[in-house]
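Morning run. Coffee first, then this:
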Amino acid sequence: MDYSIIFVCLMGLGTVFFGLICLIVLTTLLGRVCGQKQQTRPVTAAASAPAAVPAVNQQELIAAVSAAIGEELGTDITGIRILSVKKL
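And here it is:
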């Protein structure tokens, strides 16, 4: 059997696209199954999380950050100037 080049290319492209469509369907289904379980858990954990987190003194936080940066860079803390700190 002698197949033409166009037939081989179309079969290859068809196989790739079929595989990609199968992966999309599979990840969508798994995302829905796993997403339902994850949505119920964080609601209870998120409600109790802020109560468990202690308040942080801003000056102590800046001192700790500047000490860590100074240690990493190997410089003196007096040479470091932190302008702002954002919570991530």
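The mean pLDDT is 82. Good start to the day.
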